[in-house]
Write a structure and sequence with these properties.
single chain, alpha+beta, four-stranded mixed sheet, 4 strands
Length: 243
């Protein structure tokens, strides 16, 4: 098969004609006339202060009217003299019932806090002094004076019996509470002496710490002496007089 070796002369590609863009028009060489820009106006704060003053004025009016409303509300909530007298009579009658029932309640109480509360309440009634500026003249009425004095006498008279019961019940309360700490509690001398027995009291520091924590409450119940032993039949022991 014959090959055609005849060489062909390559043709040079033709470049498309370039179109020249039109020249921009000549800019005028003379600059446009310049005019001075107007100066910015200063903002006036006068309007702002007027608005603020109006708001403050209305706020003062609202607060003042609210105070008047509160005064009127407090006046409307104030009880009349008859209502206040009746509330006081009811309170004094309730105190009398409380005084009459406090010893039976103490005998059935094993809570140290409640026993303390009974004694504190009776001491407060025995030393009660009513001072009320609302209706002072009511406190001077004979019926009110008699009820107050009667309750004070009743509370003062019941306190020795109440404290005796509370000492007995409090010793039981402590004996149950301190059992898990290997401490036994006993009373003697008509219940006015309380004895704590436990190995922990072989240490003088433990005795001092225990005494500092318990002295005030024991004194409140009318205990006169506290004894600390580390064994029941120890001939030597530490004691504190509470009087």
């Amino acid at each position: 098969m014959e090959q055609n070796n005849e060489s062909q002369t390559p043709q040079t590609p033709q470049t498309p004609p370039q179109i020249q863009a039109p020249k921009p028009p000549m800019q005028p060489t003379t600059p446009p006339p310049m005019y001075p820009s107007p100066k910015p106006k200063k903002k006036s704060h006068k309007t702002l202060w007027i608005i603020l003053g109006v708001l403050v004025f209305f706020f003062i009016i609202i607060v003042a009217s609210g105070g008047d409303d509160n005064k009127e509300a407090s006046k409307s909530n104030k009880p009349s003299k008859d209502e206040w007298r009746q509330e006081l009579v009811d309170e004094l009658n309730a105190e009398k019932e409380y005084i009459d029932s406090v010893v039976p309640m103490a005998k059935n109480t094993t809570s140290g806090e409640m026993l303390c509360g009974y004694v504190s309440d009776m001491e407060a009634i025995a030393d009660k002094k009513l001072k009320d500026s609302t209706y002072t003249d009511v406190l001077e009425e004979q019926e009110i004076v008699d009820k107050i004095n009667d309750n004070k006498k009743r509370a003062s008279a019941i306190l020795p019996t109440l404290k005796s019961v509370c000492r007995k019940q409090y010793a039981k309360y402590l004996d149950d509470k301190l059992w898990e700490h290997n401490i036994d509690v006993e009373t003697s001398n008509g219940g006015t002496t309380i004895t704590f027995i436990g190995g922990i009291f072989a240490s003088n520091k433990n005795i001092k710490d225990f005494q500092n924590q318990s002295a005030e409450t024991l004194r409140k119940f009318g205990f006169k002496r506290v004894i600390y032993k580390w064994i029941p039949h120890d001939p030597t022991y530490t004691y504190y007089d509470l009087e």
